[in-house]
Amino acid sequence: MAGWTTRRWLTVGVSAALAVLTLLAVAGVWVLARSTTISDRLVDGSTPALVTSVRLESALINQETGARGYGLTGEPGFLEPYRSGLRQQKDSVALLRTLLADDSKAAADLDEMLVRAETWQSRFGRPVASAPAGAPVALAAERADEGRQHFNAIRASSARLEQDLEADRSRAHAELHDVRTQRNYIFSLIAAVILALTALVFAGLRRGVTLPLDRLSEGVRRVAKGNFDQPITPSGPADLRRLTVDIEAMRGRLADELAFTDSARERLDEQAADLRRSNAELEQFAYVASHDLQEPLRKVASFCQLLQRRYSDQLDERAVQYIDFAVDGANRMQTLIHDLLAFSRVGRLHADNETVDLEELFSRTTDALSIAVEEADAKITHDPLPVVSGDATQLGMLLQNLVSNALKFRSAERAPRVEVSARFEDGLWHFAVADNGIGIGAEYADRVFVIFQRLHTRDAYPGNGIGLALCKKIVEFHGGTIAIDPAHSPGARITFTLPGPPLPQAEPAPDTEEVPS
């Protein structure tokens, strides 16, 4: 029984209760049926038979009275009770035959009474009643004693019949009383059994289900409050114990996960501290790079240029070339340091999250590049640009780098054309900056986003190879992605995404806008 589940306990308990109630119900039905049978016997048998026997005796008495009166006086009026008694006797006998069909003793008493009645009729009643009226009947006087004896015998038989019927009626009353007592006992037992079953059901549910569930709930609440070290003890039926074991296993796993999480959090805190320390060192390096490193480079370039101007008449062509190399190297080192500083500051110094109108920002960007656009005789068009959330400085650097790259890497065979498109899809803005320049090979689609990776010599196209790496860092900082579209030709097409709301439908904008070159 220790392995019984709640369902099995309920099945066995309900089956046993139903079996007991069924037995008691059968007993109750039997008692009710027996009570009904005895009541029917009393109402439809014993009592009517007793009443009818009394009526039969009355009918015989009326016959005796009428016959005796007629015999003494000869008056016809005395024959009416006699004839009425005959009719009543006939009806009563017929009814008694029906009522006493199952009572042989009473039927025998009735037969004996009728035999004696017939003897009285043959010896006294009919001879007297058939005599002529108008004068006393001599036969009545002659047979008066004999008639009295025969009628006394009738009275004795009637008394026995009535005594037997009364005894049968008393027995039926006694049986009915016993059956009612049994009925009351059985119904009381049924009520007691129902109350006992109800109490057992409540006690069983409390002990087998409610209390184990309360203990389990209490244990789960302790775990929910963070007390993962307190074990949950199984109790109750087998299925509840299995459930408790599963929850205990889950608690153990949660405790292990929590311990691992605490350990990981400690390690993360240590790493965060190291990262803060590293960022502080990086800030210090940025300060040194922006001041202490650039100052010597400026001095080198300045003194080299001063040397060239002051002693140009004493230097040969190779010495002048060497000085140009030194000045160019110092300038390129300054530019490289400036680009590295800009790359390191993305997401660190410029990290404001504000509403940025890209339409206005793009206009400022093209204004800043207006000289380069005019020199290249370029045409720049763009779709209506949305409002997004982000850092205006970084997004301005993104647009400026992409447009300036399109102008820088233009083709000598055709006038530059730059198209900026924007569409909203799946909760993101998808942007594309396309040009008709020299393009980017598909094999370099990933390489161009790596810092310091160049596809051309510095003599052909100036720069340090940081521009697209900076664009990738800005886009990823804003929660987007950036890539090269290898299918675009001629030229290059750079796509990127930014989160933001769609354009308002009530304020349509023109499809394209051209910036004059």
**Nearest-angstrom radius of gyration?**
63 Å
What's the helix count? 11
Strand order of the largest sheet: 6-7-5-4-2-8
> Average pLDDT across residues?
78
The helix/strand class is alpha+beta
Shape: rod-shaped
Q: Give me the count of strands.
A: 8
Spans with pLDDT under 50 lasting ≥5 residues?
506-517
Largest sheet: 6 strands, mixed
Describe this structure in words.
The protein is an alpha+beta fold and 517 residues long. Helices cover 68% and strands 8% of the residues. The protein is built from eleven helices and eight strands. It has helices at 6-73, 79-99, 104-129, 138-142, 144-224, 238-310, 317-345, 358-368, 370-376, 392-408, 467-477; strands at 354-357, 379-382, 387-390, 417-425, 428-435, 482-484, 493-499, 513-515. The strands form two sheets. It has a six-stranded mixed beta sheet. Strand 4 (417-425) and strand 5 form a beta hairpin. Helix 1 (6-73) runs antiparallel to helix 2, helix 1 (6-73) runs parallel beside helix 3 (104-129) and helix 8 (358-368) packs across helix 10 (392-408). The longest helix has 81 residues, at 144-224. The radius of gyration is 63 Å and the shape is rod-shaped. The protein starts with 5 loop residues before the first helix and ends with a strand. Mean pLDDT is 78; it is low at 506-517.
